[in-house]
Specification:
alpha/beta; about 350 residues; 16 strands; three-stranded antiparallel sheet
Length: about 350
Amino acid sequence: MRILVTGGAGFIGSHLVEALVDTGWEVRVLDLAVHPTGRGRDPSELHPDAEYVWGDIRDPEIVGRACQGLDAVSHHAAKVGLESGLSDAVDYVADNDLGTAVLLSGLDRSGFAGRLVLASSMVVYGEGRYRCGEHGVLRPAPRSPERLAAGLFEPQCPTCGEALTVETIGEDVGLDPRNVYAATKVHQEHLCQVFGRQSSVPVTALRYHNVYGPRMPRDTPYSGVAAIFRSALERGEAPQVFEDGGQQRDFVHVTDVARANLAALTVDPPADGAFNVASGTAHTVGQMAEALADAFGPAAPRPQVTGSFRLGDVRHILASPARARAVLGFEAETDFTHGMADFASAELR
């Protein structure tokens, strides 16, 4: 079985390539030889048993070559992370939406009839699922700059203004992207769904929650918050925790994410639709920072809560892993405490 992994030299993609080769797949990778940050790919991070096609996913000629003779595709190539402003919008749309369109066009021209797995994201939901004691389940409006500046971080019921209770979110809720990156991930899902319907190809969208683990980008504006906190601790600096540190997330280890992809690629019958990929356990950003500081030892600086905020961020987003467990047979295995302790000394990029 031959699979194309776009973005297969990146953080999550490289772990998936390892897992695929280990289980007997013939793996072809399409990735950039030089990351947009200017960093070249480290040969030591490339799998010797995978085939690498170097080039831009927006290049139809390169993509056309990569799409020949495939049984499956795992699409990870994307510009990720919260953008710094609308000035980044063109880059996000070009990399994520145009890149996906070029890939799907190449698959169509090649007569592809296998499985397509898309690396999607929790950001497609916007805010998570909340409940008001009087008005039931709801999705609050985006938080106002005025309330955030006043240190009022919790969303309110849009009808009565009362406090809300956080609940886990399932895959059937309406999508509500609240930044440019999120909007491009929604569009990726829609493009793949259209391709799947028109080509009779099963399409599985894996909505990753907060992924962490070895090979994360070390310290860039688009790094995950776990890597940014770890880099600060390595420099002997206190992690700077935004808002009040009470933002709830689901942190899932990258090896579990690779396992979820294997499940989506092999489950019988193929699984159409979207699936949360998460641990099923909530932790706050503040707890994550404390866990990393603990792993660095008693002399490590303690996290500092800054009250700073970003308008594109959401307050709480917790996943229900029930559908992935029932349909894909996937459950995360890495415990948060052990995972964060290992991450404190893991190799970063």
